[in-house]
């Protein structure tokens, strides 16, 4: 299935996969890509699910309670879409770095939970644990940056830590940057993510 998206060709081998939060769209994250890697290719995708008109990447039953069947289905759908789009645009499928916020970070984490080859690395702003009771693939060599707020009511601290521990146990190299704010994306965490990205 196709997904509404924006694609911009850059000057290096990396593709930044931009994934917005609930109610956002494929325009939202574009300024971030310039701050992280102005030379990268950009694939910015709009979630295929609509929650009362708000785009999302998978259905939820309530705030923080995910429709796991839909999440798994949408994860595969997004993964296939990335593969097809990379092929059609001559992008290196093995060098896709996700940059996701909130719901977009959750589907990015789910991509890593399901397929070790889905992402080269990921920047997850305010993610949650996408699902439990799943065996993760071997994520050795994968790098993950998590930006989180100690006062985030949607992604509480223990949830962030559980996600980081689960990814680490699967072999990923995870860095968490904590700030004092809530669920909103801060300039500070974007700057830290951009700094972390240089070490990829
Ligand atoms: C989700 O549903 O993915 C999380 O609650 C975050 C969000 O509201 O987007």
Please give the alpha-carbon distance between the first and last residues: 31 Å
- The CATH class is Alpha Beta
**H and E string:** EEHEEEEEHEHEEHEH
So what's the overall shape? globular
| Helix share, percent | 25-40%
Could you give me the name of the CATH homologous superfamily? Alpha/Beta hydrolase fold, catalytic domain
Beta-strand share of residues: 25-35%
Number of helices: 5
GO molecular function, one term: hydrolase activity
Domain Dienelactone hydrolase: 73-191
Protein name: Carboxylesterase
InterPro entries: AB_hydrolase_fold, Dienelactn_hydro
Task: Write up what this structure looks like.
A hairpin with a 2-residue loop joins strand 4 (49-51) and strand 5 (54-56). Helix 2 (68-88) packs across helix 3. The protein is α/β, with parallel strands linked by helices and 200 residues long. The protein has one domain (5-198): Alpha/Beta hydrolase fold, catalytic domain (Rossmann fold). It has helices at residues 30-36, 68-88, 103-114, 157-169, 187-197; strands at residues 5-8, 15-19, 41-45, 49-51, 54-56, 60-62, 65-66, 96-101, 121-125, 143-149, 173-179. The protein has a seven-stranded mixed β-sheet, with helices on both faces. The chain contains five helices and eleven strands; from the N terminus they run ββαβββββαβαββαβα.
Features:
binds D-malate, alpha/beta, two-stranded antiparallel ribbon, 7-stranded mixed beta sheet
Would you summarize the structure shown here?
Residues 73-191 form the Dienelactone hydrolase domain. The chain is 32% helix and 25% strand.
């Amino acid at each position: 299935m196709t997904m509404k998206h924006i694609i911009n060709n850059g000057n290096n081998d990396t593709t930044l996969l931009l994934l917005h939060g609930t109610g956002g769209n494929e325009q939202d994250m574009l300024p971030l890509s310039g701050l992280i890697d102005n030379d990268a290719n950009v694939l910015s995708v709009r979630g295929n699910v609509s929650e009362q008109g708000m785009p999302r990447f998978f259905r939820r039953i309530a705030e923080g309670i995910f429709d796991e069947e839909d999440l798994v289905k949408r994860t595969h759908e997004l993964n296939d879409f990335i593969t097809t789009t990379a092929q059609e645009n001559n992008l290196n499928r093995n060098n896709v770095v996700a940059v996701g916020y909130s719901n977009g970070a959750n589907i990015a984490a789910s991509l890593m939970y399901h397929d070790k080859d889905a992402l080269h690395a990921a920047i997850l702003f305010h993610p949650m644990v996408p699902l439990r009771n799943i065996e993760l693939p071997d994520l050795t060599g994968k790098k993950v940056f998590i930006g989180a707020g100690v006062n985030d009511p949607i992604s509480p601290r223990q949830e962030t830590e559980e996600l980081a521990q689960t990814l680490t146990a699967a072999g990923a190299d995870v860095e968490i940057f904590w700030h004092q704010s809530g669920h909103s994306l801060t300039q500070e965490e974007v700057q830290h993510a951009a700094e972390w990205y240089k070490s990829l």
